[in-house]
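dude i think i finally got it to work??
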Amino acid sequence: MNARAGRWAVLGLGACTLLLAISLCAGLPLAELFGSHQGDSKLGLVVLEIRLPRALLALVIGAGLGAAGAALQALLRNPLAEPGVLGISAGAAAGAVLAFYSGLSLTFAPLLPLGGFIGALLVTVVLSMLAARATSTTTLLLAGLALNSLLGAVVALLLSLAPNPYALYELYFWLMGSVTDRSLLHLALAAPPLLVGIALLVREARPMEVLALGEETAVSLGLDLPRLRQRVIFATALAVGPGVAVAGAIAFVGMLVPHLVRALVGSARPRLLIPLSAIGGGALTLLADLLSRSPLLPVELKLGVITALLGAPAFLLVALRLREGVAR
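look at this
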């Protein structure tokens, strides 16, 4: 890692630490919080049982989205690619909605994130089979878009068949994305596969740098492109699926963060982009969660709403820049 990237990595980690501290302590009387014994303090319980799981979930979910976005943009060689483009996020959402709609999640709460993870896993299996046979990344991208549309239609169908308006209301707001009221159990379910997925994506960064030379050139240099696609898709599912299953859909983080990192670091090398995008994604999602519960707002907004408000204008700017580049 070069010196410039190293400085931004340190700054990013510092920002994550600062945002985490603010998320844990904002609005609480610090003298009372740190002046009493943790086991006897109600404020300590608030921090450990409510705020800590929420903040850590936002951090690891954002890290997974950022790393997955950088990896997919390198794999597909498409600057507008993000984790939702292959249908993995939609698969997790469909699985979680099915678990809720069937009533299984009401009998045992962890079945909701488990259903989401199973949905993401099934989509990953389908994509891995397609990746083994696809002749180009364009074919894989189109297949992912088709799966995304199909699963989005399945979710819309389930919403339209909701047995009562209260169930529809709960499903709708869950799909908007939030880490509110998440517990240490949710963190324990989501964090391990997320961290494994991020580590696998970082490991695949070196072969993806060869892919930047072009598919034909990379294959001539000995790169097993179908196997690389399968490994990246599997790692993306681990880095994204559990987060969607636990917190719902959180849009645009995976698309926006790699572009911010490129602008700051001045490099498009996956070995730099993927770990730095993980750090940036964690910081951005944690910041969005803090903004969602700002005392200046009349109500607490959903996390997915904040990330969409931040990401949609950035998406438009990227598209316009790409158009200008083509025109030149």
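The domain at 3-327 is CATH 1.10.3470.10 (ABC transporter involved in vitamin B12 uptake, BtuC).
im so relieved honestly
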